[in-house]
Amino acid sequence: MAYDRRARLGEFPLGQIILAWLAVSAILFLTGLPSLLKGQFPDPDDVLRLVQVRDLLAGQAWFDPMQYRIDPPAGTAMHWSRLVDVPLAAVIMLFTPLVGQANAEQVALIALPIITFGLAAAVIGRLAWRLLGTRAAIFAVLACGFLPALLFQFRPMRIDHHGWQIFSVAVALWAISWRDARKGGWVAGIAMAFGLSISLEILPMAGAFGAILFVRWWLDHAQRGWLVAYMQALSGGLLLFYLATRGPSAWTQYCDSISPAHLGFFLVAALGTWILAKTTKLRGFGLILLFSLVGAAAFATYALSSPDCLRTPFAALDPAVDAFWYRRVLEGQPFWVQAAAVVVPALIQMTAAVGATIAIRAQSMGWMRVWWTEYLALLLASIVLALLVARSLALASIIAAIPLGWLATRLLERVRMEKAIAARIASVLILIMLLVPMTPVTLWQNLAPDTQVEGKPARSVDEARCVIREQAGLLGKLPQGTVFATLDIGPSILLESHHGVVATGHHRANEAMADVINGFTKAADEARPIIASRGADYVALCSDLVEASMFTALAPDGLGADLVAGNPPEWLEPVDLGGPEEFLVYRVVD
Hints:
Helix 4 crosses helix 16 (393-417) and helix 19 (468-474) packs across helix 20. The chain is 63% helix and 4% strand. A hairpin with an 8-residue loop joins strand 1 and strand 2 (76-77). It is built from 24 helices and seven strands. It is mainly alpha-helical and 590 residues long. Residues 5-9 and 449-459 have low confidence and may be disordered. A five-stranded mixed β-sheet has the order 4-3-5-7-6. It has a two-stranded antiparallel sheet with strand order 1-2. The longest helix has 32 residues, at 101-132.
């Protein structure tokens, strides 16, 4: 039986939730320690985030989103939000007087992901306690430590925006469980406005929450206040965050981040929702028709404001950028192209979470049964989103943590109470598969023949001898200039040296990215004018990283393949900086 604990105040097991958070934090720290000791960021985006914060602390204007050392001298406008920069900058500023900026950055790199996880865990623990009791709340937080997609987004040095978006979804989920429609709708709307202002990738989840609140209205006219409050807070919050981070004069239209066209869409939708709440009591098909008209008006506002944005932000990518970069960023691709190490654990855990939610719903009565129906719908919506965009699995995971925590408590209780040995063993095996879903993948990898070929380029950053953060610092020995570098090492060059780079893996520099890809894949005589047109002073790459091997495989006769093979053209002069032989640096000569 699922109980409603909302009326029983003063019992929240804060100490136990903190202990559970500390246990998961220990897992995060220990699993991330090797990379932390090597200074190896989980992703190039994390590196560039620190570059952005350094520039802010060095005096770059708050409302200036440019990265002037990407595609210099004009630079590249970033689609990232200052909202994520604030906590990083605050921690660095706080600790710099005490330990110096370098050590303050290390504090921020370790502490902030764990603090962000703590905030999300507190929300999930609170919601689980209110609905399912103390044990389920504790195990819901502990379950977060066994969800790989979620764990990755909170590991040390993972300072990009995904953790904050997970927190936003957790807060919205908690808020729609409140008794007060106005307060709950407003908090959910502000939470999703915060997440959307960070990145548009959670737009489908904002829509899913809105759909749940629409169904409440559709089933009961008295519940219309939920959607009205949600839409008001969502549209107002988006406008507030936009003005706070972009400035009152920044009305440039972009398709990949919240822009005036998006603000217009949500403001019209919120106004239409409010008007319907005040003027009609229609239900059923009539209400759907009226909301269709509101949606059409909002969409027309968006389309007229920015017709170019009717396509996806990536539709205008250069074909070379689309094929070589976008289609190979696996976290942004559908689930069916992911590796077994991602797919198998996720399928096991998400299936278990769906089954557990159905079981909880079946045991519930009254409003709780309705609530768990809504919860199941949100969980399924997040799973569908994850199937389409793999990185969204982290959002599904934070929603799945509560039913998985409940399931873990039931399995442990069965192990303790069951007298039949076979049943107890079965419960233990199910629990192991639930918490360690990599087990079948690991067994297969151990039993399968090893196909690794001697001399093959490293399959991962951890296996490479070219530790780019260390090697990028060596470039500081050279006079300041622009480096024509492979996309993934560009952020480390910006972080560890005074040089600029032609491009990084960030799509607003589409033309520069295309030039980098073409420069490394075309023959040396064709690559030379491309590199010259970008004013590059140096060429750099790590020969044992995946990107270099991709250039070689894609174009065996291209410049990248020549450099990896040790056959540079005469217009590239090798530069020995004292790093490993895999770190290739050349000076461009006339």
